[in-house]
Amino acid sequence: MLVIKIGGAADIDYSNLCNDIAQLAAQGQPIVLFHGGSDGANTLSEQLGHPPRFITSPSGHTSRQTDRRTLEIFMMATALLNRQFVERLRGLGVNALGLSGIDGGLLQGTRKTNVRAVENGRVRVIRDDWTGSIDQVNRGLLQTLLSAGYLPVIAPLAVSNAGEPLNIDGDRGAASVAAALEAETLLLLTNVSGLYRKFPDESSLIEHLPRTELAQATEKLAQGRMKKKLLGAQTALDGGVRRVIIGDGRSEQPVSAALAGNGTIIE
């Protein structure tokens, strides 16, 4: 089992990704595709007059400030991207099926009652927040789809026990899915070649990272969104996934290249 997470950055060619997935699927490789949607959400937010806002937690992690209107825009943007992935894959002969974590209670989570953010050197509490963390994956639903020959394409939303939609971190979402399915590999594709020892120097790419050094790398080496990817990697490994690869989603065959050893392998 291979779970692929593709980020939502603007400079990733989704056509190359879908072509690569189609070739692997034709060879019998079971795959689940989990996608982001940050760039599309940013663009749509600007178009609708509700510009995106980002906050930094006291621990240094950056995330989208998600009020109810932002959540609605995020749902629209990720739904469009989800349908575009399904369209591309089905056009290549892949029996893709699109859904979000809300559908069928695929990803069940807890809404954060408040979020702490650092602003101008001070910590403030944000209460109108619609983000959450994943508590449970509906493994049976995914297994049913996979057994029926579908390739699930998942948008990064979860549902609370109260039925509320939640914006979730895509890397951790994919990690939770990979752990629930007991996947051999979680592949996190992004717009860089992997984890760099000296960002953004590509020659400092770390090709292999022992799990024992993951926490230190998250604290000392990771910059920006890479921190979230390493946290996702930790979630996956803790859940029993054997290896996590952080690969370059911009390459011509991003999945095949990563599985061949290009990127940062954590195991």
Automatic annotation (TrEMBL):
<protein>
    <recommendedName>
        <fullName>Putative [LysW]-aminoadipate kinase</fullName>
        <ecNumber>2.7.2.17</ecNumber>
    </recommendedName>
</protein>
<feature type="binding site">
    <location>
        <position position="167"/>
    </location>
    <ligand>
        <name>substrate</name>
    </ligand>
</feature>
<keyword id="KW-0418">Kinase</keyword>
<feature type="site" description="Transition state stabilizer">
    <location>
        <position position="5"/>
    </location>
</feature>
<dbReference type="GO" id="GO:0005524">
    <property type="term" value="F:ATP binding"/>
</dbReference>
<dbReference type="Pfam" id="PF00696">
    <property type="entry name" value="AA_kinase"/>
</dbReference>
<dbReference type="GO" id="GO:0003991">
    <property type="term" value="F:acetylglutamate kinase activity"/>
</dbReference>
<comment type="similarity">
    <text>Belongs to the acetylglutamate kinase family. LysZ subfamily.</text>
</comment>
<keyword id="KW-0963">Cytoplasm</keyword>
<comment type="function">
    <text>Catalyzes the phosphorylation of LysW-gamma-alpha-aminoadipate.</text>
</comment>
<keyword id="KW-0808">Transferase</keyword>
<dbReference type="InterPro" id="IPR037529">
    <property type="entry name" value="LysZ"/>
</dbReference>
<dbReference type="InterPro" id="IPR036393">
    <property type="entry name" value="AceGlu_kinase-like_sf"/>
</dbReference>
<dbReference type="GO" id="GO:0043744">
    <property type="term" value="F:N2-acetyl-L-aminoadipate kinase activity"/>
</dbReference>
<feature type="domain" description="Aspartate/glutamate/uridylate kinase">
    <location>
        <begin position="2"/>
        <end position="247"/>
    </location>
</feature>
<comment type="pathway">
    <text>Amino-acid biosynthesis; L-lysine biosynthesis via AAA pathway; L-lysine from L-alpha-aminoadipate (Thermus route): step 2/5.</text>
</comment>
<dbReference type="GO" id="GO:0019878">
    <property type="term" value="P:lysine biosynthetic process via aminoadipic acid"/>
</dbReference>
<dbReference type="InterPro" id="IPR001057">
    <property type="entry name" value="Glu/AcGlu_kinase"/>
</dbReference>
<dbReference type="InterPro" id="IPR004662">
    <property type="entry name" value="AcgluKinase_fam"/>
</dbReference>
<dbReference type="GO" id="GO:0005737">
    <property type="term" value="C:cytoplasm"/>
</dbReference>
<keyword id="KW-0028">Amino-acid biosynthesis</keyword>
<dbReference type="InterPro" id="IPR001048">
    <property type="entry name" value="Asp/Glu/Uridylate_kinase"/>
</dbReference>
<keyword id="KW-0457">Lysine biosynthesis</keyword>
<keyword id="KW-0067">ATP-binding</keyword>
<dbReference type="GO" id="GO:0006526">
    <property type="term" value="P:L-arginine biosynthetic process"/>
</dbReference>
<feature type="binding site">
    <location>
        <position position="64"/>
    </location>
    <ligand>
        <name>substrate</name>
    </ligand>
</feature>
<feature type="site" description="Transition state stabilizer">
    <location>
        <position position="229"/>
    </location>
</feature>
<keyword id="KW-0547">Nucleotide-binding</keyword>
